[in-house]
Design a protein that fits this description.
The complex is a heterodimer. Chain A is mainly α. Chain A contains 8 helices and 2 strands. In chain A, strands 1-2 form a two-stranded antiparallel ribbon. Chain A starts with 12 loop residues before the first strand and ends with a helix. Chain B is of the alpha+beta class. The chains are: A mainly alpha, B alpha+beta. At the A-B interface, helix 6 of A face helix 7, strand 6, strand 7 and helix 10 of B.
Chain lengths: 172, 350
């Protein structure tokens, strides 16, 4: 069966979906899905995006994504993702752009986070351990947590801020 | 200069710092890379030369060399013994000396600052001071790093922060570590629970000078295990809090054990003195254990030995430093020389 998108290559993914009470079979090839992504494919085929269909695609894809991920290489230094997995070293600064998506789960695992909140480039380091700066930092963390929809973390951070403010009032 | 630091040891080993009964020294290192150049782990020879040129140029323009009394060395200018001795003194990393080509480093006159070019990252800037002094060290080291940033285009992204070769250093590129002597927590075995708890606080807790979770030296290296998603101050505060807690519980355990098990500890110290006085050969592990007990004796004032002399010996007895001290390259002679050295140095004191 040929791919519904390019109509040239053999399809590798087959998904059945009921759209407007009509059963529809979707055939997609590796190349099109890596080019367009799932959202792009659905847009191309005029299929409304929902979580259910996304899940169906993902169920069909894990092996393939894995293979593609490993073969992907950085256009600047040629490092393949599989090389990074072996050595733990990236090849050049641009690798972080090339492998941005692949690195996020790894960073989450290694660092518990994938967002830098430290000193920005060009800023000078100053040591400010005052309560004010601690609250400022926590507020920034709170913003990130809300942005990333980590509401449980957000609630904890909010409580921490309130406690610091309350303690400060008692101490003064 | 480098030869004199190796022979006479860096300042942070010779000086006895604040709360040095528990925390011998503080070390901070920062990783940076220049944008648009491959990391040293995958760079070609020409690219490695370019990295060195760019960084040396920045050092010259920035005046950092005279401001911090730095001397630069090509790693090839040092012999194998000297390179390994600097690793034993924590001034260079094992990875840095593994392949000595296209490597360059700076060291200051006191042996507190070391700056490695073409280690895992283009730049590794490190500063060591005695005692629990991480607040001073962080302010000090950023004077160098921030000044360099005026002259080098460091690789940085808004999402991931400062870019590093290995994602374990990403973000701040900051690693703060303290070298602790915890003989009583080690003796009672309580150290095991503390180590297994430490990962919850993003802390790495490792035995130093000897492998495993209870090294005979009772020396531990405590450092932050994460560098991303936290500010430099957060990381500093984590180590400050954890370090203070370690000081408190080690001292508490010392008091408990010295109250309840005093004769056991006196026995350990006495046996250590005996080995130094009457043995003919001492291997590294045994020396590490002996010095750990002598340090306890010195801190508790049971022995008339200055604690910082023990600190010096903890480093001096390392194999490459021994070889340099005695001008030998023969491995088989080291244990005998170590025994002689400890006898001579501590002879009148124990």
């Amino acid at each position: 069966m040929l791919c519904d998108i390019c109509k040239k290559r053999e399809a590798t993914i087959y998904v059945t979906e009921v759209i407007n009470s009509e059963k529809k079979n979707l055939y997609i090839c590796n190349i099109c899905i890596s080019k367009l992504g799932i959202k792009g494919i659905l847009k191309e085929l005029n299929i409304p995006y929902d979580e259910n269909i996304l899940k169906k695609f993902l169920e069909m894809m894990p092996g393939m994504v894995e293979e593609e991920k490993k073969e992907k290489n950085c256009p600047v230094c040629n490092l393949k993702f599989v090389d990074f997995e072996k050595s733990g070293y990236l090849g050049c600064p641009n690798c972080y752009e090339t492998f941005k998506d692949e690195l996020k789960p790894i960073l989450l695992n290694l660092q518990g986070n994938f967002k830098h909140i430290g000193k920005k480039k060009g800023e000078k380091f100053t040591l400010d351990t005052s309560l004010e700066s601690e609250i400022k930092r926590l507020k920034r963390e709170l913003e990130y947590a809300i942005e990333e929809e980590r509401y449980e973390d957000a609630a904890k951070i909010r409580d921490k801020i309130n406690k610091l403010i309350k303690d400060d009032k008692i101490n003064n | 200069m480098i030869k004199s630091i190796i022979r006479n040891l860096p300042k942070w080993i010779n000086n006895y710092g604040i709360v040095s009964d528990v925390i011998i020294s503080s070390r901070i290192r920062i990783a940076r890379n220049i944008d648009n150049i491959k990391f040293p782990t995958s760079a070609s020879i020409d690219e490695k030369k370019l990295i060195i040129d760019k960084i040396l140029d920045a050092f010259k323009k920035s005046n950092l060399i005279s401001e911090f009394n730095l001397t630069g060395y090509n790693l090839l200018d040092l012999n194998d013994l000297e390179r390994n001795a600097l690793v034993e003194l924590h001034m260079l990393s094992p990875l840095f000396i593994k392949d000595p080509y296209y490597k360059y480093f700076f060291i200051d006159d006191d042996g507190e600052i070391s700056i490695m070019i073409n280690e895992e990252d283009h730049l590794r800037i490190q500063c060591l001071k005695e005692g629990f002094s991480i607040k001073d060290v962080i302010t000090f080291i950023y004077k160098i790093v921030d000044k360099l940033e005026d002259y080098l285009d460091f690789s940085y992204r808004n999402d991931f922060g400062y870019i590093t070769t290995c994602p374990t250093n990403l973000g701040t590129g900051l690693r703060i570590s303290i070298l602790c002597h915890l003989p009583f927590l080690n003796y009672s075995g309580k150290i095991r629970d503390i180590i297994s708890d430490s990962s919850k606080f993003s802390i790495s807790f490792k035995g130093s000078f000897g492998e495993g979770s209870n090294p005979v030296s009772s020396l531990y290296q405590i450092s932050n295990s994460t560098t991303l998603g936290k500010s430099e101050e957060d990381i500093l505060n984590t180590i400050l809090r954890f370090g203070n807690e370690i000081i408190r519980i080690e001292r508490e355990e010392r008091k408990n054990i010295m109250d309840k098990n005093r004769s056991e500890i006196l026995d350990k110290i006495g046996r250590s003195v005996g080995v130094i006085k009457y043995s003919n050969k001492i291997d590294l592990d045994e020396a590490n254990e002996i010095l750990s007990w002598l340090r306890v004796g010195a801190i508790e004032k049971l022995l008339n030995v200055p604690v910082n002399l023990i600190n010096q010996l903890i480093f001096k007895i390392r194999p490459n430093l021994m070889k340099i001290e005695f001008n030998t390259t023969i491995d088989e002679e080291i244990d005998k020389l170590r025994s002689d050295y400890l006898k001579t140095t501590l002879g009148g004191l124990i």
